[in-house]
Amino acid sequence: MKNKKNIPQFKSEDEERAFWAKQDSAHYIDWENAERLVLADLKPSTRSISIRLSVAMLNEIRLLANKKDIPYQSLIKMFLAERVQKEIKIA
Prior knowledge:
Layout (H helix, E strand, L loop, with lengths): L12 H10 L32 H14 L3 H19 L1
Helix pairs in contact: 2-3
């Protein structure tokens, strides 16, 4: 292991965030010997948004969701996720 700098103690998350925004973590962490960690139970951050849909489209989405026995909001998220992945592959 190469000599690495000690990570300072932070008074707040904001202070730590500001520190790491300006520092190269390679000076503090031996990435060559780091172990990969899978955080399977970690839920991604979410944010509520407002979206306007026609009444007819919303009714159709609710109908589809009902047939699939899932909440309509979940179906909308599934549709969006599928389309985003498709667009990313095209780009």
